[in-house]
Amino acid sequence: MGALSGGPMRFGELRRRLDGITQKMLTQTLRTLERDGLVTRTVYPIIPPKVEYAATGLGESVTALMHGIRTWSEENINSVLDARDAYDARAAQEVQPVTA
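Above: the chain's sequence. Below: its structure in token form.
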């Protein structure tokens, strides 16, 4: 969804922007997003055919939420990694019996 936030894009543009995604996975994802009402697919009747994908209003609203999650993640990644390290250190210690 973030890739479409800049406006309509053709399939090839999307695939280049999402480096590493396979054609099959991008096709499946776009179909699902279109079915869910988050993306529109516009086919222009020219030769060769031109197809563009764009975020709908609903898609734009979820993109804003995803941007907020990304910002939070970037701001808090060090705290999350520190918590993981602390947890792993505690988990690696031998269990001590409880004495009364």
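The chain is about 55% helix and 15% strand.
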